[in-house]
């Protein structure tokens, strides 16, 4: 009905159908159809039509005052929404793995806050892609394959899975030479790995190798710590273990079976209607995640 009311107001303002059509950049028959539909909806004739002009009926005069108010309210609402989209204020809810937050984001968040002090930020650690919309996330940082194509995403970088263990563990229990030998070892797995398998490149193809988890944790940092103290073999992102490998706290194994790289993605629900606050956070996260993790 909004287009019909807009056409009605233009006809009154311009004094005719042809001039109204020119102003609205549509055809005169289109204006006529919109007026006719509006009259049907209102069950009242709005214009007296002659060959030279259109004049408001009593019902038309009455409706015109309300129509002007309706259009004014609509334009005010439209401007308010447009203004909100450009404001860098409000709250952002961001889901991301603890390791991503730890290595890339929270240590430099002061730079973002200094530039945008009116944005409130809520970080929720974990894998939140499956409940993205239900939990009201603005952005989710996802590591791995993308199971759902409904959302918009931006790939930032690649990362690799590293199979590793502490030197003390390998000295006591030996080093597996093939992925299939992992069943004979104590493994430390991610709590959300419901397949209870790790992926490897075997005979030039990806293969899921079943493991037996003696310990589980719901974040990579705890898994790394458990591996460092010799409790078993871990399967972790390269950026999580880079320092531990450099310091010989962990040793990389099964390197010839290393699986193909995975991606780190920024995932968001809408591309066309992104708010300004979401845009600047996407830019910030992109810059953060493009940096290399420092060896400490």
List the topology elements.
Layout (H helix, E strand, L loop, with lengths): L1 H13 L2 H8 L3 H15 L4 E3 L4 E3 L1 H29 L3 E7 L1 H8 L3 H7 L3 E7 L13 E5 L8 E8 L1 E5 L1 H7 L13 E4 L6 E6 L2 E6 L2 E5 L2 H9 L4 E5 H9 L4 E3 L8 E7 L7 H14 L7
Parallel strand pairs: 3-4, 3-5, 8-11, 8-12
Antiparallel strand pairs: 1-2, 5-14, 6-14, 7-12, 7-13, 9-10
Helix pairs in contact: 1-2, 1-3, 1-4, 2-3
Characteristic key phrases:
D-Maltodextrin-Binding Protein, domain 2; 40% helix; 14 strands; 296 residues; 5-stranded mixed beta sheet; single chain
CATH superfamily of the largest domain: Periplasmic binding protein-like II
Give me the count of strands. 14
Spatial order of the strands in the main sheet? 4-3-5-14-6
Strand content: 25-35%
Query: What is the general shape?
Result: elongated
**CATH domain topology of the largest domain:** D-Maltodextrin-Binding Protein, domain 2
Count of separate structural domains: 3
Question: How can the largest sheet be summarized?
Answer: 5 strands, mixed
What's the CATH architecture name of the largest domain? 3-Layer(aba) Sandwich
Unreliable sequence segments: none
C-alpha Rg (nearest Å) = 31 Å
Give the class-level CATH name of the largest domain.
Answer: Alpha Beta
Order of helices and strands: HHHEEHEHHEEEEHEEEEHEHEEH
Distance between the termini: 64 Å
Mean pLDDT comes to 90
Structural class by secondary-structure content = alpha/beta
Tally of contiguous helical segments: 10
Amount of helix = 40-55%
């Amino acid at each position: 009905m909004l287009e019909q009311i807009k056409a009605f107001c233009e006809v009154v303002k311009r004094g005719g159908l042809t001039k109204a059509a020119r102003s609205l950049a549509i055809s005169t028959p289109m204006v006529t159809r919109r007026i006719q539909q509006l009259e049907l909806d209102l069950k009242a004739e709005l214009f007296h039509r002659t060959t030279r002009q259109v004049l408001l009926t009593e019902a038309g005069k009455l409706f015109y005052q309300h129509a002007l108010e309706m259009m004014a309210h609509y334009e005010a609402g439209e401007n308010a929404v447009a203004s909100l989209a450009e404001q860098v204020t409000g709250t952002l809810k961001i889901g991301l793995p603890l390791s991503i937050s730890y290595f890339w984001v929270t240590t430099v968040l002061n730079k973002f806050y200094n530039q945008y002090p009116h944005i409130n930020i809520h970080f929720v650690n974990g894998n939140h892609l499956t409940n993205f919309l239900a939990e009201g996330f603005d952005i989710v940082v996802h590591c791995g394959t993308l199971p759902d194509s409904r959302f918009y995403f931006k790939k930032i970088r690649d990362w690799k899975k590293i199979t590793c263990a502490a030197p003390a563990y390998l000295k006591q229990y030996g080093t597996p030479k093939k992925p299939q030998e992992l069943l004979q070892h104590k493994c430390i797995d991610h709590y959300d790995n419901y397949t209870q398998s790790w992926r490897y490149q075997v005979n030039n193809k990806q293969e899921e190798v079943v493991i037996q988890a003696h310990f589980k944790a719901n974040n990579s940092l705890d898994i790394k710590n458990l591996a460092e103290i010799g409790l078993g073999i871990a399967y972790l992102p390269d950026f999580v273990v880079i320092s531990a490998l450099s310091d010989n706290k962990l040793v990389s194994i099964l390197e010839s079976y290393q699986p193909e790289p995975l991606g780190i993605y920024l995932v968001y629900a809408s591309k066309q209607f992104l708010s300004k606050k979401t845009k600047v956070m996407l830019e910030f996260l992109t810059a953060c995640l493009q940096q290399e993790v420092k060896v400490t």
